[in-house]
Each structure stands twice: as C-alpha cells, then as structure tokens.
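Subject line: Sequence and fold of a protein, written as structure tokens
Enclosed: The protein record, placed directly beneath this head.
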Amino acid sequence: MSIKSSLIKATAQVICVREDKLASNAVKNQSIVLNQLIIKGRKTSFGKDYKFSKIKDLRSFQQHVPLSDYEKHIHYFERIKAGESDVLWPGKPKYLAKTSGTTSGTKYIPITRASIPNHLNSARNALFSYVHHRPDTKIFDGKMLFLSGSPELEFSNGIGIGRLSGIVNHEIPSWFSKAKLPDHQTNMIQPWELKVEMIIEDLLHRDLRVVSGIPPWIQMFFEKVLEKTGKSCVKDVFPNLELYIHGGVNYEPYSQRINSLVGEQLSLMETYPASEGFIAYQDDPDIEGMRLVSKSGIFFEFIALDEVLDPSPKRLSLEEIEIHKDYAIVLSTNAGLWAYVLGDVVNFSSFNPPRLKVTGRVTQYISAFGEHVIASEVEGALREIQNLFDLQVIEFSVAPQVNPKDNQLPYHEWFIEFKDVPKNLLEISAKLDEAMKLRNSYYKDLVNGRVLDSLKIRPIKSNGFKNYMIGIKKYGEQFKVQRLCNDRRIAEELTKQIILT
C-alpha cells in the first residue's frame, strides 16, 4: 500500500467517525441548519418579501414561506442571472447549474460559495466511507474515471454557467486531481463519441481502479473498451478495476449487461447528487440505502406522496417521517432555494441514521438515461407533429428501450395508435425526434452524443390501447393510459399490439 493510500485511509477513518456521530444527531442537525438559513436569508430580497424577520421556528417558517418550484420563483432566478446581488442568498452565486426545466425550459440553479462544500465534501465523504468499510481496498493506488459533462463554462455578469458535473471539475481539490481522469483538456473534447475514444486511448495504459457515471454512459464506455481492445471482458483490460460509483438513474435495468461486460460484479456505491444539492450517499457498501446529509447547508421537508396534489399538504420535518413510506422531498438551502419541491420521491429504510432510496418522481417521466423527459415535452412534440403531418392520434405511450435485441444504441420507443397509420413513419419519426430535442436539452445531448439512438415509432393496432386496458382490468372512464413509463412494464404489454410491417 502506498503512503498516499495510508494517509487517505487514516483521514477517512477520522472523517467517517465524525460523520457517523453527526448522522446519529440528524434531527438536531436539521434544527441548527434551519436556524442558520433563516438568519442568512433575512438579508435577501426573498427574505424581506417573505418577512423572515418574523420567523422564529419551523412552524412559523412554514407559515411564511410557501412551497415553491423553479417556475413559481422564476423572477428571482432571472434577477440572479442578470447579475443582481442579495436576491435569494447574500451576494451573487459563483455558478449557475444548467438543468432541464418543466414549463420554463432550461433552469439555472444557483451554486454559492456557501453551498460548494456540500457538493464537494459529500462526494469526498462517500468515497471515504467506502475506504473505511473496505480496509483492504487499494483504489487510491490507481486512477479513477469520472465520466461527466464538459467543464466548459459560459460567464455572464461574473457568474460561471454550465452543467453541474462540469462545474464540479473546477472545484476538485489538488490532493485528488492527480488520481482523477479524464484530464481537463480531454474532458473539453466535443463531440461525446470522440471524447470517449480519446479517454479510452489514454486509459489503456493506466491502472484503472474506479469508474463513475450514469449507467447508460458506463455501459457504452465498457462496450467501446471491448470493441477497441478485442478483449472478452473489461477486467482483462483493467484487472484492478474494483468500484463503480453510480447515481441519478436506476441502476437495476443495467446491472446484468454491465456485469457481463466487466466479467464480474464490481463493488457498488450509490450517490444522490443534484444541481440543487448533494442529498445523500451510501455510507456503507454492505447496507442498501443512502444516508441523508443532515448538516451541510440543506434543510429537508417531506410531503406524503398521497398529499402532493393537495392545495395545502402537510409539511413534515425529518423528525416526523415514517419508515417505508413515499415522500416528495422539499429543500431549503444555502444556495438560496426556499421550500423548493425537488420533484423526487424518496422512501426511508431507517431513521437512525436516516437512510433513503429514490423511488421515482412526483410526476410521470422518463429518465432511464438521465434525460428527465416529462409529459408536457412529449405531448407538445407530438402535437407539433400532428399539425405538421395532419395526423390523428388515438392514444400513445412512451418507454425507454434500454437493451435492444439488435445490440444497437438504446432509444425511446413511442407506441402510437393512429386513426390511419401513415406510410411515411420514418420521416415522421425524424421530425418528432427533432421536436423532442428542441424541448429537452438532455435528450438532445444524449442523441447527438450517440448515447441514445433516435426515437422509434411502433404503430399500434386499431383498439390496441383499449385491448391493453381491458387486459389489465383498467378499462373505463376513470382510468387513463400512462403517457410515460420509466420501465418496460407497459411497453411489454403494448408490444403485443404492434402492427407488424
């Protein structure tokens, strides 16, 4: 074991003991965080508008600060982007993280100097937790690959603007930078496919120990490694590869294919980073679930999933949640988000320490590849194509095809029942794909980067959706076809209704 690894393990032990102690006092931590946020928030435009000076505790905070999302407070975010100070948090943010929005298109989430440690330290602590629980590991004796977005930033009014994964590259501490790949110059390469080729060229002569990235990207990366080397499995190329850090996308649909590519099952560590904050990480590789980061500038509230659509749902603190129940997660942060409904649904597996898993989104969505496609984007794109080609659509549903049988790129599969099936489906599919790219920048990046293939339309037989709904005993006026499904449950049934061409 190298001197570097020995020092890191000693440091990891100290930090993990400290974090374990913090986790055992999560409720108390949250009370402290809320008080700190309120004090800072009083100095902002938002704090003055919502009378933070009158807030004394959690209940008064909930009375003064209503639930919100990006669209509700977009005028505050636009003022920040225009360069105004002291809007949602004292001063100006250091960065704005671009992420896909709903009705407002691209969102610009503030990352302040106060919130940067949340992103960096939580990621570090996740890695240290693995080292702490795997004392024989030698991951720091080799290289670690983090497949991420480009670190290239735009600057507007003194604020750096880019994707979160790219922003984080600018904040990597020096002690870690030598182990991390790709280097800055390689990470800037466009397009994605060329960048991956250059990464592989560089890696073939490296001692790779860790990989990190969303599952579809890692799967594609492994496939290209085998294509380049002619080897039968990734472990033949990188014999010391040990750990896969994943998050953001459900790993389960990809596990079988990735294990096959690697030649064995890697050790896994799940993380829960978001542009809005680093929320949780797997603190023990032998325990499922991610431990909530309870004292890092984020105050959490939770809404029972069955109350999400209520006009005034009950907002619960960490102390009030129940185990094994689904909740929508709400954040107030030192980046200037206040009672912000993130959109994720979480379910706690333990309370002391608080561990959770992400079980879905508040609304229907497709994010099997990290694209976060929502219903309004799909419906808007289809509506545009219907007008363009004078099409009559009876019903439709969309699902991801993660593992095509022809071993081609994965894609979105659109099951559409037309009144009259058009003969120019390929042309329609191409136009529909372009319409989706215009509505969702993540989807555009994935298709242009050859992580995803263009969408495929599957024409459904006349009354095919009706037959499907009857088959699942949900046919009637109170039941609706699910427009988007992030797995293949609906798709596998609809496949039986496809018109064979």
Observations:
- The chain has a mean pLDDT of 91.
- The chain is about 35% helix and 20% strand.
- Residues 1-362 form a domain with the Rossmann fold fold (CATH 3.40.50).
